[in-house]
Write a structure and sequence with these properties.
The complex is a heterodimer of chains A (325) and B (428).
Chain A lengths: L1 H16 L14 H4 L6 H18 L3 E6 L2 E7 L5 E5 H4 L5 E5 L5 E10 L4 E6 L21 E4 L15 E8 L4 E3 L11 E3 L5 E8 L6 E5 H6 L1 H5 L9 E2 L2 E3 L8 E4 L4 H5 L6 E5 L2 E2 L3 H9 L6 E8 L2 E8 L1 E2 L3
Antiparallel strand pairs in A: 1-2, 1-4, 2-3, 3-6, 4-5, 5-6, 7-8, 7-10, 8-9, 9-12, 10-11, 11-12, 13-20, 14-15, 16-17, 16-18, 18-19
Chain B lengths: L3 E2 L12 H6 L18 H5 L2 H8 L2 E6 L2 E8 L5 E5 L8 E4 L5 E10 L4 E6 L20 E5 L5 E6 L26 E5 L6 E6 L4 H5 L6 E5 L2 E2 L3 H8 L7 E8 L2 E8 L17 H6 L16 E3 L11 E4 L4 E10 L2 E6 H12 L7 H17 L4 H23 L9 H7 L10
Antiparallel strand pairs in B: 2-3, 2-5, 3-4, 4-7, 5-6, 6-7, 8-9, 8-17, 10-11, 11-12, 12-13, 12-14, 14-15, 16-19, 17-18, 18-19
Helix pairs in contact in B: 7-8, 7-9, 8-9
């Protein structure tokens, strides 16, 4: 009986603290020197250094090591109750029991949640009761080439007496699918966080190419876009979903070339020549855009479509099917 | 048994859009594609010129047979210079000073643990370095490595505070038929130090000693075992046929077993050079690593990309404070420096031996240096090195006694390659 009461008071406590601020809240805004294309003086470098130290101080406690089976990756805590963002190839199969190692060496239990294998995003949850230091999620769509960023993680796996390792670099390139920086990464870093100079998570480490400039991160926005699915332990894009349309290959927009007979698309009344402009609440510029949005769905989901047929704008809803191979 | 570390190494040429690479102009060195790294951008590097101006006066270029081998850091006006020991072996040594002088040099002492050699150069009027310290942890601070011409050769930020990794220290031991073989597979206990046995080879030394699966090896003689890596490294310091005491934990109790190490069969010898290990492969991507990049008793790391031949020089922060001695390009994400305060403790130990000393005099000097290190409360890692240097000088003295010939220089290095290096003797 006593245990149950304790458990209940624990819940009340954590609800009470749910409004607590992220660990990264009190980081001062980056000074002007940090937003220059390149620092121009020692003073600029010192301003940049001061900001890096402010951010590092706050984000190190949120950076964790994940031990999944016999392998070791990194992650970042993004909620007070211990939700962790990581890479899809680190969390792997949803529902696996994992060990989460905090920067002070404390080991707690966790479980893997959903993943989006194609983009390499993944989630996990600390299951040991407690409140945890956490970082805020930032935006990745506004990132610019040349912008400073900070990477933390556990290169080579967790090492006793070595807290998460700091690297500083700049954004080289970014799009909806990846962010590339010159913050060097190596095995063990996978799943670790990339921060902007306000200490917000803008990416999750994923993979590398040979040059020291080819360090690839999953953009933070993809986590936000698929948040609920990841939390619900879904494997995004891995159940073959069926719409039943083909692209008009000559079109730059999302113009449909062919509708498969008796497909969800035909049943909903889509016709060849229709141009899809919105899909599942998002604007669609090209057929590829639509496919990407489609891949986040699963069979049986109902989605809303907006389309142009000649001069006419139409809205319709359809239920997605399961692709037969 | 082997740990996997996540990061699939994909070659990602496609994502570095060609237009982008062109806009940035000629890319970085080493045939890299795509944009240049910030830290190798010439405009950015040039910003650090004022901070390396003073330490550059104490930096020399060390050459082996006239070829760039390492950098060196001047520690005395009369010609003592620190450098990276493993980069300055096997040839005629000389240095080029900040003021353009070419001077002959000889190695007077070596710390195998730190991979630091003390050089004595034929010259005076050199500018000794002023060491600072890392007592206030410099994580996130910009650092620069001074080249002798006053140019910053590499820049980056400090990635970790100084730390002391688990032993053993010194050059990696290479498995050979002469090195001791136990015959177990082991993994790591995630919660406490030790190597957990998963498998015992039937008929092996381990089997004969009574080691069982699920035993956790915690000690070999008095060497503490932290994980499977330190188990392997420790075993490699023994010879086949040697008797060892192995302490294992079984069902919560400590049991002491005695084993006579066996011979390693040829199929258990790892091929020399790079290979196999995925972590090693990824770490080698994008830059050249130092040959010696493990077993340093105390260091901190930076994300600066330091060439192996630029190790041995001083590392400076933005205030011009010299906080470390660059010692290794250790991996894709890391270059290592020995903290300035550790170097300060190490210098007197390495300066004890003078170039013209006889082996017996070296023993006396090494013994005095150890005593001084202990009395002055030098860093424990440095005291350990002083003890190792004393052991080495004793072994050297014995060798000369056993080989009382006037000619023929001692083929010491060849001797050492044939068998395992001598272990540090326990402090009694």
């Amino acid at each position: 009986m006593r245990f149950r009461l304790l458990a209940i008071s624990g819940v009340v406590l954590s609800v009470g603290l749910a409004v607590a601020e992220p660990t990264t809240r009190n980081i001062p805004a980056p000074p002007a020197a940090v937003t220059k294309a390149l620092p121009e003086s020692i003073d600029d470098l010192k301003a940049l250094q001061k900001q890096v130290r402010e951010v590092v101080d706050k984000v190190i406690p949120c950076t964790v090591c994940l031990q999944v089976g016999g392998a070791s990756g990194s992650g970042v805590i993004v909620s007070e109750d211990g939700l962790i963002l990581t890479a899809g190839h680190v969390s792997g199969e949803p529902g696996r029991k994992i060990t989460v190692i905090l920067p002070d060496g404390r080991r707690v239990e966790g479980i893997t949640l959903g993943r989006w294998a194609q983009i390499d995003s993944g989630m996990a949850q600390i299951t040991t009761t407690g409140t945890w230091p956490y970082a805020e999620l930032g935006n990745s769509k506004d990132l610019k080439a040349g912008q400073w960023c900070i990477a933390t993680g556990h290169p080579g796996g967790f090492k006793k007496d070595r807290p998460p390792v700091v690297r500083v670099g700049r954004i080289n390139f970014g799009n909806d699918n990846l962010v590339q920086t010159d913050c060097t990464l190596v095995g063990g870093d996978s799943g670790g966080p990339l921060f902007d100079m306000s200490g917000k998570v803008i990416g999750i480490h994923s993979r590398i190419g040979n040059p020291l400039t080819a360090n690839i991160h999953v953009p933070a926005d993809t986590y936000r876009d698929t948040w609920d699915q990841l939390v619900k332990s879904e494997k995004i894009g891995e159940t073959p979903v069926w719409l039943g349309v083909k692209a008009d290959v000559d079109a730059k927009n999302c113009k449909l070339g062919e509708i498969t007979k008796e497909s969800p698309a035909e049943k909903a009344g889509l016709k060849a020549g229709d141009v899809i402009t919105r899909f599942a609440g998002k604007d669609v510029g090209s057929y590829q855009d639509m496919v990407k949005l489609l891949q986040k769905q699963k069979p049986g989901d109902e989605v809303a479509l907006e389309l142009k047929r000649g001069d006419e704008t139409k809205e319709l809803r359809l239920t997605l099917g399961k692709r037969k191979d | 048994m082997l740990k996997r570390y996540f990061i699939p190494a994909l070659i990602v040429i496609a994502i570095a859009a060609p237009s982008y690479a062109q806009r940035k102009g000629p890319g970085g060195g080493g045939g890299e594609r795509g944009p240049t790294s910030t830290k190798s951008n010439p405009t950015f590097l040039a910003l650090f010129k004022p901070v390396v101006e003073t330490p550059a006066k104490s930096t020399v270029r060390v050459l082996v047979d006239g070829k760039d081998a390492a950098l060196g850091t001047v520690v005395s006006q009369d010609g003592y210079v620190l450098t990276k020991a493993s980069e300055v072996k096997g040839g005629r040594l000389s240095v080029k000073t900040h003021d353009g002088r070419d001077l002959d040099a000889t190695v007077t002492a070596t710390s195998d643990g730190f991979d630091v050699a003390m050089l004595k150069v034929d010259g005076t009027g050199l500018e000794p370095i002023q060491w600072s310290s890392t007592k206030e942890c410099p994580v996130g601070n910009w650092v620069a490595i001074a080249g002798p011409a006053g140019e910053p050769v590499a820049v980056g930020v400090v990635s970790t505070c100084p730390r002391t990794p688990p032993p053993p220290y010194g050059p990696p031991r290479v498995p050979s038929e002469q090195t001791g073989f136990l015959g177990v597979r082991a993994g790591q206990d995630p919660d406490s130090p030790g190597a957990v046995i998963s498998d015992v080879t039937p008929g092996s030394a381990a089997d004969k000693a009574g080691i069982q699966a699920k035993d956790k090896i915690v000690l070999i003689d008095s060497n503490e075992i932290f994980d499977q890596e330190s188990l392997v490294n420790t075993l490699l310091t023994y010879r086949a046929g040697e008797k060892v005491k192995i302490t294992v934990e079984r069902d919560g109790k400590r049991i002491e077993l005695s084993a006579t190490l066996g011979k390693r069969t040829p199929d258990l010898l790892t091929p020399k050079g790079k290979g196999g290990n995925r972590g090693d492969m990824q770490n080698s991507m994008g830059s050249t690593l130092s040959d010696r990049r493990t077993g340093i008793p105390r260091f901190f790391q930076t994300d600066a990309v330091v060439k192996p031949s630029d190790c041995g020089g001083p590392m400076t922060d933005l205030d011009g404070h010299v906080i470390g001695l660059m010692i290794a390009r250790a991996g894709r994400t890391e270059s290592w420096a020995i903290p300035a305060e550790t170097v300060t403790d190490l210098v007197p130990v390495l300066m004890a031996a003078k170039p013209d000393m006889k082996p017996s005099q070296r023993v006396v000097a090494a013994r005095a240096a150890l005593k001084q290190a202990e009395e002055s409360k030098a860093a424990p890692e440095v005291v350990g090195e002083a003890r190792r240097i004393l052991q080495a000088s004793l072994a050297d003295e014995k060798w000369w006694k056993d080989h009382p010939i006037e000619a023929a220089p001692a083929p010491r290095e060849i001797l050492f390659e044939a068998g395992p290096a001598p272990r540090a003797v326990d402090k009694k």
